[in-house]
Amino acid sequence: MRTRDLLPTTDGEGGGVARYREIAGDLAAKIRDGRYSPGEALPAQRELSQAYGVTLMTLRQALRELSAEGLIVQQPGKGTFVAPPHLAYQLGSLRSFADDLRDQGHEVRTTVISCAQRRVPARIAARLRIRETETGLRLERVRAFAGRRAIHQISWVREPQADRLRDVDFTSVSLYAALADQGVAVARAAETIRPATLDADVARHLDDDEGVPVLVSDRITYTPDGTALVADRATILGSMMQITADRAATTLSLTWRPT
């Protein structure tokens, strides 16, 4: 990949610390104005160091600056890439991932991997407070935005609401919207978000490698009468997500615990 309108090369390093900051500033400007697009690879380090007329050590200092700003992602053995846009995961709202993404200006593509009535596993039955012998709707899907499959999600819906959702096209309708269309109201959700690493089973559905950092969201959604309606687990690529919260004493309660 050729370099694009880089700073003119100079004779020698010419200023050490100031020089690597100049390079970082120049590359940052080109990333922000779109000359390097999200997810695109930057030129190789040796090519960049030659174009800027600096040593590899100085060039790497500049790249560390960009990495600290969240503008690039360095993948050992693969290269340096412009960081993808970050989804702000809004803790204070009760909406679907797809709705959150669209409201932030992202085009979202949902792929349904499976949607079927199944016997509820023991772990899910305990979360929904139902018997293990009962069935529910298991909905598995992947969300893609900014050109990457970034979110893998499995939702379990209890009966009798599950039976009403069998024919819904979840590629274009969110689960919450489908429930609302059936006259089912949701009132609140309890959610835990924890850091993890991407396991092999989920990695095959997302555009990243096994072992990379992810966020795992476990959510239980309740009806107004306190019935646990939906048990949901979402695995989100850590490189594409940041968590935000609008805090108010009466609207959001956060509990911070070491992991």
Automatic annotation (TrEMBL):
Keywords: DNA-binding, Transcription, Transcription regulation. Residues 17-85 form the HTH gntR-type domain. Transmembrane segments: none annotated. InterPro entries: Bact_HTH_transcr_reg, Chorismate_lyase_/UTRA_dom_sf, Tscrpt_reg_HTH_GntR, UTRA, WH-like_DNA-bd_sf, WH_DNA-bd_sf. Coiled coil: none annotated. Pfam families: GntR (PF00392), UTRA (PF07702). The keyword Iron does not apply. PROSITE patterns: HTH_GNTR (PS50949). The keyword Transferase does not apply. This is GntR family transcriptional regulator. It comes from Hamadaea flava.
